[in-house]
Amino acid sequence: MKLKLLAGLLCAACVLPTMAQEKKSSVSFFGNYSKPSDSDGSGFLAASYGYLVTSQLELGFFVTEAFNAGKTITGVGGEAQYYFGNVGKVGSFLPYVKGNVGSTDNDGHTYTTYGAFAGVGYALTETTEAFAEVGATSTDNNGDKQSGSQVNLGIKFRF
């Protein structure tokens, strides 16, 4: 009996530190910018919080600050990101797909935004990942729909 108890305590002592080291939460900062020659620049900056609900699925929310033609527009939303590999493996590339839905208020009008992205991250350290993603976006303003594309660059910190 004592041998089983000792073996159980030894297993727990080995497993608990690795569980404590598991990085399930993340904070990301990303954005894009473009400046056609005939107009003011446009783009956005965003911050997001995510939580790994499984080893490959991360759910989260984001806040964006878009700027276009001298106007600033704030948006909020939720996202889901699926990784095709091991999160946090230093020196590895980590491809993923991501979908999001958000809401933006512009001059008193509320817009619904949708996005579908494919990207790749590179684990610089166990807790820091640089990433690039491309995607298709859609904005719906009470039936008036506009679509577009994005290329985003960012950095993610896990804790």
Q: How does this model look, in words?
A:
The protein has 159 residues and is mostly beta strands. It has a single domain (22-158), classed as Porin. The protein contains 1 helix and 8 strands. It has one helix spanning 2-21, and strands spanning 25-34, 42-52, 57-68, 71-83, 93-106, 109-123, 128-141, 144-158. An 8-stranded antiparallel beta barrel has the order 1-2-3-4-5-6-7-8. A hairpin with a 4-residue loop joins strand 2 and strand 3. The radius of gyration is 20 Å and the shape is globular. Residues 1-20 have low confidence and may be disordered.
Please tag this protein with its features.
159 residues; mainly beta; Porin; 13% helix; disordered N terminus
What's the SSE blueprint?
Blueprint: H1 2-21, E1 25-34, E2 42-52, E3 57-68, E4 71-83, E5 93-106, E6 109-123, E7 128-141, E8 144-158
Quick summary of this structure?
This protein has one helix spanning 2-21; strands at residues 25-34, 42-52, 57-68, 71-83, 93-106, 109-123, 128-141, 144-158. It has 159 residues and is mainly β.
Read across the widest sheet, the strand sequence of neighbours is 1-2-3-4-5-6-7-8
Report the strand count. Answer: 8
Percent helix range? 10-25%
Tally of distinct domains? 1
The whole-number mean of residue pLDDT values reads: 84
Structural class: mainly beta
| Model regions low in confidence, pLDDT < 50 over at least 5 residues | 1-20
Radius of gyration: 20 Å
Please write the string of helix (H) and strand (E) elements: HEEEEEEEE
Q: Quote the CATH topology.
A: Porin
Identify the CATH class: Mainly Beta
Number of helices: 1
